[in-house]
Amino acid sequence: MAETPRQLPLDLPHDAALGRDDYLVGRSNQAAFELLERWPEWPSPVVILAGPVGSGKTHLVEAFRDETGAIVIQANDLSEDKVSELVAAPACVIEDAHRGVNDTALFHLLNAARQAGKTVLITSRTWPASWKVALPDLMSRLRAATPVEVLEPDDDLLRRVLVKLFADRQIAVDIGVVDYLVVRMERSLEVAMRAVDAIDREALAGRVKITKPLAGRVLETVTSPDYGPTTG
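Above: the chain sequence. Below: its structure as tokens.
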């Protein structure tokens, strides 16, 4: 019996929709979402958003930028000569502070933002106590910041995210396939995006319908340590 030839799927862009209207809220991210929605009426000029990899911090930041026009910069790219530009924006976001940040530059940024009446959002996988901050005055500023945590998505949120990701690609998938993925995958929005992308490609390549066995095979691949980096 002849083997069904595989089709080479076109590498068409499928950028994740990361705007405010695309953000799905659940118990794991509701507190963070509601706090950012209150901008600029924050309890303090500085908010620290912490959560594990795959919890959706990146999407939340993109939604925040979409709404506010904030400038977003990686923590390890922050330098003193960028402080003026950041403070001139409606708000600024310092991402991934757990990877290391210039203490002096961050201290100057927080002071300049406070003097200008601006706000700073800092994201991290951990809280400031683990950042090895050398400046006592900077640690004092960070302790005064408003902390908000985003957790790993629960089953309900993960299910809704998967349905939306398939719908964004105009793919009709049986809800049984979605439920199959939910109970077997990591609690990670990043893994959800990777899984949907890989499942779509595999189904196109084989010119087959998306089924539980296909989804299971692909899921093993995208959750392997060698698949690629995770963010969020």
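Confidence is low (pLDDT under 50) at residues 1-13.
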